[in-house]
């Protein structure tokens, strides 16, 4: 279900992003430059806004910056080429962005007397990296690992909703979303481990 949700959302966004990608390609902009610029934007929004408690403005900056994750993909579609280094860079910068987002939320919560929310944010940070690593390691072994309740698009949507509610000062909303996301991420890790194990067992590669 998560995969279909993500695929549907990306298909709809592609209708709007492809013209932008076409314009940037004509202007001579590199997809890798867009990836790096977007990551820097996410880091800046997290460090200077989210971590200081400006949740709504921070959310706006991070959201706009995170959209570059789809813009560089649109540029690749327009160019009709697949850049292996570009894919590697994109995945690496996604991990950096995820760390910045959850790290900033953890810092903000810890410095505003919300230890439970800080703990949840740190747990989300760790689990987000494990979810992504499980997929990368599985693909390195030749296994498919595109399963799970909380893939990256779903995680970003949930944390965006939580940050919005937190910025609107809805009591305990952000903390609740963080714990929900932590649970969903943990389930996703288990799903991926079991899914890959089943594949490797069928292939006779289980040890």
From TrEMBL:
Its EC number is 2.7.8.-. It catalyses: 1,2-di-(9Z-octadecenoyl)-sn-glycero-3-cytidine-5'-diphosphate + 1D-myo-inositol 3-phosphate = 1,2-di-(9Z-octadecenoyl)-sn-glycero-3-phospho-(1D-myo-inositol-3-phosphate) + CMP + H(+); a CDP-1,2-diacyl-sn-glycerol + 1D-myo-inositol 3-phosphate = a 1,2-diacyl-sn-glycero-3-phospho-(1D-myo-inositol-3-phosphate) + CMP + H(+). GO terms for molecular function: magnesium ion binding; phosphotransferase activity, for other substituted phosphate groups. PROSITE patterns: CDP_ALCOHOL_P_TRANSF. The active site is at 94 (proton acceptor). Keywords: Cell membrane, Lipid biosynthesis, Lipid metabolism, Magnesium, Membrane, Metal-binding, Phospholipid biosynthesis, Phospholipid metabolism, Transferase, Transmembrane, Transmembrane helix. Its main location: membrane. GO terms for biological process: phospholipid biosynthetic process. It is an enzyme of class 2 (transferase). Mg(2+) 2 binds at residues 69, 90, 94. Contains a di-nuclear catalytic Mg(2+) center. InterPro entries: CDP-OH_P_trans, CDP-OH_PTrfase_TM_dom, CDP_ALCOHOL_P_TRANSF_CS, PIP_synthase_PgsA1. It comes from the Bacteria. It is found in: Cell membrane. Mg(2+) 1 binds at residues 69, 72, 90. Pfam families: CDP-OH_P_transf. Homodimer. This is Phosphatidylinositol phosphate synthase. It comes from Actinorhabdospora filicis. The gene is pgsA.
